[in-house]
Design goal:
single chain; mainly alpha; about 0% strand
């Protein structure tokens, strides 16, 4: 009997309405993502991942909206604090990349017990990572702000925001890592629900704690940090409850809650490349913010608001990209590298189409978007200029995100690290400084430096992915 034209790995499935598929994606299913049709697998994983990160970006926008009412110095305080948080994020996200890759590989190999053991070791590692950042934030908040060129208001009044955000950073790290566990296992719907709960609570508490409500006094910028810590802390408690109770694809047993040095070392080895690529990318942002601080607080405020707007539009794209990481990891674990590659090209095309739409909005409505968050015309002009410049090649970012996550999902975290080192440290920072300071382009020089370097890194990463060496990576 001929089977020509039929994929033995992904047999034909009866068509279902888009609404039923959407319901399954949001609710979560027990589907095996190494066997079902690729389009369905992408849909089931990408929808909750997109909704998860849309809520994350919504919170970032809402947060800066309320803080923006306190003035440009308050916004600048948030931006300067985030330069240190970006360093923290780089470590947390690097570990999360490794955790997703390892969990996905174990699930693809049908080794659920080993996946559970890996999950608990990742949590232990996350707690250890948070300790030095907490110490630095609690005791050296003013010094850290001064080091970044903060103005007098930020150092005198804004430092409490820095204390809270860095001092309570454990909840940020664990939120990253545990959601990475769920995504790697294929439980993207759980990660989505946790983040909606955590950030929904943040959004409710933000205006109450910043401006006061009834017996609750107005805490100003400090209130924004307290709201974030409470919201994300509650999210972590929910994550732990679900993880030990058991989800559709992974469960941690109490007897597994003991230190396993061998697995810890495996996570660390795999995460080194992920941490490296994030540190390179995010420390480059620290240097860029330092250059902008020399230009003035308005430049920092404009860039900070523009960054929040960018994050709002990038999060859906990262959601699609995260689906690529899970599909690559699980399909490599199942011994299906060609299916892994096919999923990446499909997701890359979807992402490019989305980013083209975002580019059009940035080009046409850049200053209108800035006016949502501030009435300062100089800040509006600066942030609007960055959004407009980005619009010229934003679609390249869509392909870059997916190809990077494909490398990461395969466990090949070192390749993106090397790429980032060259394009961000050796090209982006010197070029931005030269254009902004040496040539006197000021903030425009930074924005054009980012445009040239990130367009180039996107094109190069896509080419490198197409060579296919990532298929041979083992974790």
């Amino acid at each position: 009997m001929k089977t020509e034209g039929i994929d033995p790995v992904t047999p034909p499935e009866p068509r279902r309405s888009i609404w039923l598929e959407l319901k399954d994606a949001i609710r979560g299913t027990e589907s095996d993502y190494t066997k079902i049709g690729l389009r369905k697998a992408i849909f089931l994983l990408a929808v909750p991942m997109i909704l998860e990160l849309v809520m994350e970006s919504t919170f970032a926008v809402v947060d800066i909206y309320f803080v923006g009412k306190l003035g440009s110095s308050a916004v600048a305080t948030v931006g300067l604090t985030e330069t240190y948080l970006f360093l923290l994020y780089s470590i947390a996200m690097g570990v999360a990349v490794a955790v997703t890759a390892i969990i996905a590989r174990r699930i693809g190999e049908k080794k659920k017990k080993e996946a559970g053991v890996t999950a608990i070791q990742a949590i232990f590692l996350g707690v250890l990572i948070s300790l030095p950042f907490s110490f630095a934030g609690i005791y050296f908040a003013k010094d850290l702000l001064a080091l970044m060129g903060a103005d007098e208001w930020s150092i005198e009044y804004g430092y409490r925001y820095t204390q809270w955000m860095l001092g309570g950073n454990a909840v940020i790290i664990l939120l990253f890592i545990i959601n990475a566990i769920f995504r790697g296992a294929g439980d993207a719907a759980i990660a989505m629900k946790v983040l909606w709960f955590a950030n929904g609570l943040n959004i409710i508490l933000d205006p109450i704690l910043i401006f006061g409500f009834g017996p609750i006094p107005a805490m100003g910028i400090e209130g924004a940090a307290i709201a974030t810590t409470i919201g994300r802390g509650a999210g972590v408690l929910l994550q732990l409850w679900v993880l030990f109770k058991g989800s559709k694809h992974i469960q941690v047993k109490r007897k597994q809650a003991s230190w396993n040095g061998k697995i810890i070392l495996t996570i660390i080895r795999t995460s080194l490349g992920g941490v490296g690529q994030m540190i390179v990318a995010m420390t480059s942002w620290i240097f860029l913010m330092r250059i902008l601080a020399d230009v003035g607080s308005e430049a920092v405020a404009g860039a900070t608001i523009a960054l929040r707007i960018m994050l709002f539009t990038l999060m859906p794209a990262w959601g699609l990209s995260n689906a690529a990481a899970t599909l690559v990891g699980q399909n490599l674990g199942a011994g299906q590298p060609e299916r892994a590659e096919s999923s990446v090209w499909k997701i890359g095309m979807y992402n490019m189409m989305f980013m083209l739409g975002v580019s059009l909005i940035y080009f046409l409505f850049n200053e209108s978007l800035m006016r949502i968050f501030t009435s300062d015309e100089n800040v509006i002009a600066i942030g609007g200029e960055w959004l407009r410049i980005l619009s010229y090649s934003y679609f390249v970012y869509g392909w870059w995100m997916v190809s990077v996550q494909a490398f990461n999902g395969a466990g090949d975290t070192l390749t993106p690290t090397k790429i980032n080192l060259v394009f961000f440290w050796l090209i982006q920072i010197p070029l931005s400084y030269y254009l902004a300071i040496t040539l006197g382009w000021q903030h425009s020089g930074v924005f054009w430096g980012v445009f040239f370097s990130e367009t180039a890194v996107g094109l190069f990463t896509i080419w490198l992915f197409s060579r296919g060496r990532w298929k041979t990576k083992t974790v």
